[in-house]
Amino acid sequence: MDGGNEILSGPKLVTEGEWAGWRTWSGLDAFEDQTGPFYYREENGVVRSAFRAEPRHMNGGGFMHGGCMMTFADYSLFTIAWRELTDMRAVTVSLNGEFLGPAKAGDLVESTGEVTKAGGSLLFVRGLISTGGAPMLNFSGVIKKIRPR
Amino acid sequence: MDGGNEILSGPKLVTEGEWAGWRTWSGLDAFEDQTGPFYYREENGVVRSAFRAEPRHMNGGGFMHGGCMMTFADYSLFTIAWRELTDMRAVTVSLNGEFLGPAKAGDLVESTGEVTKAGGSLLFVRGLISTGGAPMLNFSGVIKKIRPR
Amino acid sequence: MDGGNEILSGPKLVTEGEWAGWRTWSGLDAFEDQTGPFYYREENGVVRSAFRAEPRHMNGGGFMHGGCMMTFADYSLFTIAWRELTDMRAVTVSLNGEFLGPAKAGDLVESTGEVTKAGGSLLFVRGLISTGGAPMLNFSGVIKKIRPR
Amino acid sequence: MDGGNEILSGPKLVTEGEWAGWRTWSGLDAFEDQTGPFYYREENGVVRSAFRAEPRHMNGGGFMHGGCMMTFADYSLFTIAWRELTDMRAVTVSLNGEFLGPAKAGDLVESTGEVTKAGGSLLFVRGLISTGGAPMLNFSGVIKKIRPR
Question: Structural domains in chain B?
Answer without folding.
Answer: 3-146 (3.10.129.10)
